[in-house]
Amino acid sequence: xxxxxxxxxxxxxxADAAVHILDRGFVFADAVYEVCQIQQGxxxxxxxxxxxxDRSLAEIRIRQPMPRAALTGILRQVLRxxxxxxxxxxxxxxxxxxxxxxxxxAPEVRPTLVVxxxxxxxxxNAAKYASGIKAATVADNRWGRVDIKTVGLLPNVLARxxxxxxxxxxxxxxxxxxxxTEGGATNLWIVNRAxxxxxxxxxxxxxxxxxxxxxxxxxxxxxxxVEERRFSVAEMLDAREVFVTGATTIxxxxxxxDGRTIANGHxxxxxxxxxxxxxxxxxKTAI
Length: 287
Ligand code: PDD
What we know:
Layout: E1 4-7, E2 10-13, H1 24-28, E3 31-39, E4 42-44, H2 46-59, H3 68-81, E5 87-94, E6 112-119, H4 122-131, E7 133-139, H5 154-165, E8 170-174, E9 180-183, E10 187-191, E11 197-199, H6 210-222, E12 226-228, H7 233-237, E13 241-246, E14 250-257, E15 260-261, H8 269-281, E16 284-286
Parallel strand pairs: 7-8, 7-14, 11-12
Antiparallel strand pairs: 1-2, 1-6, 3-4, 3-5, 4-16, 5-6, 8-9, 10-11, 10-13, 13-14, 14-15
Helix pairs in contact: 6-8
């Protein structure tokens, strides 16, 4: 069965799916995106993802390609056509195709909409939960609006590559003051010595992760204290637990950073409890 993608009104073979070379997503990274996890036949936290998409589009003044119900229908179609029950769905909206000119096209052009889906083997995540991952710190040299989920991810690409070359699976961005911002494609949390969950406030310096938001609901349900404040690399290295959150991995323990072992070097109980409670709390939309 061929993999299928949606591109501007058509369902096409993934291998043949393409956008124009003057698409502003290709030329300027003038585009935003979302990634939702698919778990046992349900789209996880779809409402929150589409709310954030609306916000990202509004922040960079791209009009919505279609109403939410129609977009949801396309996500479902792509998932069904690719027989995805565990995995992810990716959607990207660009400002559209226009002659290369930095300013917005006038008159406005039709936004490009691309949707793809992919099956992921839950056993891969399970193995990562059991072992934890290694991370490496990198300087956060990104622009000042990383709260907008744009496809302009070159610093994230370079950070993850740097981490990989250091033998790690995730990069941890550190700002000019020595405070942790977030991961290369995840939000970062610590459980401090007092047992409190600490994560950076969702200002313009991080992406306000949907998993992060739902995790706050999970923490409340479990009676875990959460503090949103900045924290240093030293505090992170001294933490009882460090973990990262994101749509494709939910809550993944970090057991070593820059070659320094975190706590006893094994995944902690808090991350595990959160993961176990997560899907009962998250919104689930049937495919
Ligand atoms: N990444 N921070 C960054 C920089 C991210 O790219 C992501 C998500 C997150 C976590 O957000 P959420 O919980 O909404 O997935 C935080 C996606 C999964 C990606 O680029 O593949």
